[in-house]
Amino acid sequence: MSAIMRLAEVDGKVLLRRHGIALPRGVLLQAGETPPSDTLSWPGFLLKAQILEGGRGKRGLVRRFATAADFRAVRRLIVATLDDADTPLLLEEAVDIAREIFVAVRIDGTQQRLELLIAPQGGENVEQSVKLSRVPIEDPASARPEVIYSAIATLFPAELAARLARFTARLPDIARREDLELLEINPLALTQDGGLVACDAKIITDDSAAFRHDANEFAVSRALAERAMTALERSARGLGFQLVETPGNVVLVTSGAGLAMMMMDLLADHGLRAATFMDNQRGAPDETMTERLTIARGLAARPNIKAIVFQTVIASRSLAERVDALTAWINAEPLPKPLFVGLAAGHAAARKMSTDEAITKLRALGVAAFTDPVALVKAVAQAVG
Ligand code: GDP
Ligand code: MN
User: Fold this and answer.
1) What residues have their beta carbon closer than 5 A to ion ligand 2?
2) b/e burial code for range 231-260 (CB count within 10 A of at least 16 → b)
């Protein structure tokens, strides 16, 4: 099984806790479980559905209540709103929030470095907050509080800005050590007595670094991701590769996450969106082209799909064999949508058949074939965009 990407709040908080970030007291309750007695003395409560999507507050999936006696009624309201009644719930002590702040560290994709984001108004409407400070992190092992302070000094009173600068200076190192794509705390609560408490956690781990981490941790997130898998994603896993369905109109067949992401970005640059993300599965057979193509044909029959893009980069396996397999698949039965093929082959791969010969052969079959991925995506955009 591949690594999960997004962590449920409760798992995100486990990660934050081991790095010394202050959190509200909390206890995870499975469906039907009642709160342990030591929670009865908490000053107030929040009950929070553990799902892998955000915006829970607005959907009524995060609810605050004053007395422990209200637990059952509040749980009933939440469960009625959930798609899956077995979703675990996090019961937390309510924090007395004086001010909600937004902080996040994320990988700045274009620069390939971390950046810190800090907004003076956190909470549910943070996307409407116009004031957002972005601080590039040159050295994630030692983000300097002075640099952060000067970036946020106009957004907060001086003392709070200084405290926040020290708090957020720790986050890039956590993201680096845990291999995170995103570490977002919203709201970070400034409490009535001046503390900073992480009331929510949105954490996305970098899949490709999963081998560095314990495969059994974050069990709640794993179980949720497993239950949220589509039938097609499940069958892809059975066939030996990872498939993620995404809302888009181009079925993208690739092997390897890096190539897939590059193609997804290229498509997006041309106003197209990929409907699939494919990656190799750790420990699986490395040749799953036929299986990928079978899934692609099925997906392409859907009315919203406009094209199929097959992009491959071959280092040492035979290009000729791959073109043969592709040709057999094309000839097997008519394709539901136009196919665009991109080929790149290293010297060893092109021994039996050169890239130009492969292109000629595919074009003779009426397939749009390219060596340049940009030309390919431009052709897709022209045909279906
Ligand atoms: P999200 O909507 O999925 O991001 O879920 P959150 O965990 O952020 O909860 C939604 C909202 O509930 C937050 O934006 C806060 O405004 C509020 N909230 C969360 N925890 C607490 C708390 O401990 N005390 C108070 N007063 N409000 C909270
Ligand atoms: Mn939140």
Assistant:
1) 186, 200
2) eebeebbebbbbbbbeebbbbbbbbebebb
Instruction: State which ligand 1 atom lies nearest to the alpha carbon of 186.
Output: 8
* Alpha carbon distance 320, 80 (integer Å): 56
Q: Which residues contact 208 (CB under 8 A, 6 or more apart)?
A: 257
CB atoms within 10 A of CB 18: 10
CA dihedral defined by 5, 272, 326, 236, rounded to 10 degrees? 30
* Residue among 368, 374, 367, 321 at smallest CA distance from 348: 321
Determine which residue's CA is closest to atom 18 belonging to ligand 1: 199
Cβ–ligand 1 distance for 95 under 6 Å, the answer yes
Cα distance from N-terminal residue to C-terminal residue, the chain: 35
pTM of the model: 0.76
For residues 174 and 141, what is the distance between their CA atoms, to the nearest angstrom?
A: 9
Q: Give the tens place of pLDDT for each residue, 146-191.
A: 999 999 999 999 999 999 999 999 999 999 999 998 999 999 999 9
Our measurement of the distance from residue 269's CA atom to the centroid of its chain's CA atoms, rounded to an integer in Å, reads: 20
The pLDDT score that the predictor gives to residue 1 is 35
In angstroms, the CA 202 to CA 11 distance is 9
Q: Identify the band that residue 137 occupies on the pLDDT scale cut at 50, 70 and 90.
A: very high
Give the pLDDT confidence of 230-268 residue by residue, as tens digits.
999 999 989 989 899 988 999 999 987 788 989 999 999
- The angle that helices 231-239 and 289-300 make with each other, rounded to 10 degrees, is 160
Apex CA 159: angle with CA 158 and CA 165, to 5°?
A: 85
CA 170 vs CA 16, 105, 146, 174, 230: distances in Å: 11, 10, 13, 7, 37
What's the gap between Cα 247 and its chain centre? 14
Substitution site in 48, 63, 97, 101 for ligand 1 pocket (most atoms within 8 Å of beta carbon): 97
Q: Residue 284: is it exposed, middle or buried by C-beta count within 10 angstroms (0-12/13-18/19+)?
A: middle
Neighbours of 99 (CB within 10 A): 17
DSSP helix, strand, coil percent of the chain (3-state; round to 5) = 35, 25, 40
Rounded to a whole number of angstroms, the CA Rg of the chain reads: 25
Q: What percent of the chain has pLDDT over 70?
A: 96
